[in-house]
Structures are given as structure tokens and as C-alpha cells.
Design a protein that fits this description.
Helix 4 packs parallel to helix 6. The strands form three sheets. This protein has a two-stranded antiparallel sheet with strand order 1-2. Strands 3-6 form a two-stranded antiparallel ribbon. Helix content is 49%, strand content 9%. By secondary structure, it is mostly helical. The structure holds zinc ion (ZN). The site of zinc ion has 8 residues, from loops.
């Protein structure tokens, strides 16, 4: 987990709110593998039994569908409504009171008498996303993506999604050829629904971006800063 999310997690909240589609995508962006997912799941829903790797993979596929539609809205304001409607048509919903105490939504999708936890959540997220899409088409706010950058030392394990190169190209520090020696630099994955006022997901993310950008432009910057700090303390 990166620092910015730890900070967000410790911020006081008035009431517990279930995950929405954008938050879930933002958190998913930090899972490199099944083990990361397990850590996340046991935190989010400590009382539910842990889904297996196959369920995890199909959950990711479902979330990727939403991610692709979100990118399409982000870059050209277009969205594949028939594809969303097709998926909605296959879903039924019910309330799962036994999930109380988790951060999962309690209105969940099911296909048979049984609820598979991750399918149930994926369906709930699809509906939540569809609500955003419907509002967007009606003139509501679109999508913003944080302009922050951070270092992820495990980045080489990641495969860039089809749209990720486009997202990176919007950030000067990440454009091809800008910092080729530093493969660990990533664009913050956080989305938020809005009208493009805020550029960063958090103060911590903005500060980190400032520091990285300073470092790249003036390689001696950090060393200088530490030296100045040590001299001050003497
Ligand atoms: Zn951010």
C-alpha cells in the first residue's frame, strides 16, 4: 500500500460508507497479485470466507470491464451503453444483511439461490457505475483522474492496460523519454467523479508528486535538502 492510501484510511469518517465503484477501482489498482487481494479482502470483509484465485480472476475481469468503460468516458465522452445494458440484464439483486460490518455494499447481485461474494460485489459495482453513466449522459459530472505520480518498486510486474499509456501521456513527467531510467514511476490511479477542479486525490499525493518532480529536475535536490537540514541542527 502506498502512503497516500494509508493516510486516507486513518482520516476520521463520520459513518461507515460502503465502497463505491470508483473507490473499488482505486483500491484494485494497488493489487499486484492474489496475495495483495487477500490482504485487502480480509481487511474489507473480515467475517466472510476468503474467495479463491479463480473467483478473484473473474472479479478482476468484471472490474476491468468497468475500467475500460470509464477510460472511454474519460478520453472521449463515449460509452458502450448496449454492453452495459447487456450485463445489467443478467443480474438480479437482493439484500445481504449478513454482510453488515464489512465495507461491501449490502445490495448485491446473484444469479442463483447462492450468492458468490465477488460476483455479488461486481454486480453491485456495475449498477453503481451504470448510475454514474446515466447521470453523465444526462449532463452530470464526468471523471477526473489524479495527476499525481509515485514510485512503485514492483511496477515491472504490472502490465499497462490498453489505456494506461494514454493516461501516462497526460503527465509531463511520465511522457515517453522523459524519465526512461525510472521505470518505477507511475501515475496515481485514483479516479473521482467531478468537474475537473481538484488535480490530486490528496495532499499527500500532491506533496509526493512535487518531491519527485523536484528530484528529477534537480538531481541534487534531496541531498542538498538533507545537508541543509543537518547543518541547521548543528
Ligand atoms: Zn493521487
Amino acid at each position: 500500500m502506498s502512503d497516500k492510501h494509508n493516510e486516507a484510511a486513518s482520516a476520521p469518517e463520520e459513518t461507515q460508507r460502503p465502497l463505491d465503484w470508483a473507490e473499488l477501482l482505486n483500491e484494485e489498482a494497488q493489487w499486484h497479485d492474489y496475495a495483495d487481494f487477500l490482504g485487502w479482502f480480509s481487511n474489507v470483509a473480515p467475517l466472510l470466507s476468503v474467495p479463491g484465485p479463480d473467483q478473484f480472476q473473474s472479479f478482476r475481469d468484471d472490474l476491468n470491464f468497468i475500467r475500460r468503460q470509464a477510460a472511454s468516458i474519460y478520453f472521449n465522452g463515449a460509452v458502450d451503453i448496449p454492453a452495459i445494458n447487456n450485463r445489467l440484464a443478467n443480474l438480479s439483486f437482493r439484500i445481504e444483511p449478513s454482510w453488515e460490518g464489512s465495507r461491501l455494499p449490502l445490495l448485491v447481485a446473484h444469479t442463483s439461490s447462492e450468492v458468490n461474494v465477488l460476483d455479488g460485489v461486481a454486480g453491485a459495482m456495475l449498477v453503481d457505475f451504470a448510475k454514474f453513466v446515466a447521470d453523465f449522459i444526462a449532463g452530470g459530472p464526468g471523471l477526473c483522474r489524479c495527476e499525481g505520480v509515485f514510485r512503485d518498486q514492483r511496477a515491472e510486474e504490472l502490465q499497462l492496460t490498453e489505456f494506461e499509456t494514454q493516461y501516462r501521456d497526460e503527465i509531463d513527467l511520465l511522457k515517453d523519454g522523459q524519465s526512461p531510467e525510472d521505470q518505477s514511476l507511475q501515475r496515481c490511479a485514483d479516479f473521482f467523479v467531478g468537474r475537473r477542479k481538484a488535480r490530486f486525490c490528496s495532499d499527500a499525493c500532491r506533496f509526493m508528486t512535487f518531491r519527485i518532480s523536484k528530484q528529477l529536475k534537480e538531481p541534487g535536490y534531496l541531498a542538498d535538502k538533507q545537508r541543509r537540514y543537518r547543518n541547521r541542527k548543528k
